[in-house]
Amino acid sequence: xxxxxxxxxxxxxxxxxxxxxxxxxxxxxxxxxxxxxxxxxxxxxxxxxxxxxxxxxxxxxxxxxxxxxxxxxxxxxxxxxxxxxxxxxxxxxxxxxxxxxxxxxxxxxxxxxxxxxxxxxxxxx
Length: 125
Known about the structure:
10% strand
């Protein structure tokens, strides 16, 4: 945990207050968050389904990332009645659903410029 008075922490607070982009990136940053959102959107709405879909993620990390997405109101936990043990379903909020096309656009952008592809400057086009 970093100190709230460190220059790094103060710079981060300044950026969050002065640029919504930094706040947005903070909400979705994390190695697995984009994949989790997309997987829930695709119908994998239970912890076990997410774990199966994202087999390389540990249960601890998946749990932490889900809690962070819930904290940012990107998803909600919904108890499944009459299940033993008590079941939980994850559902994207309207905020989470609005994020999906943005993630798809970022994915397309990544495909276009991944693997060392040359980036053309505007004057090159």
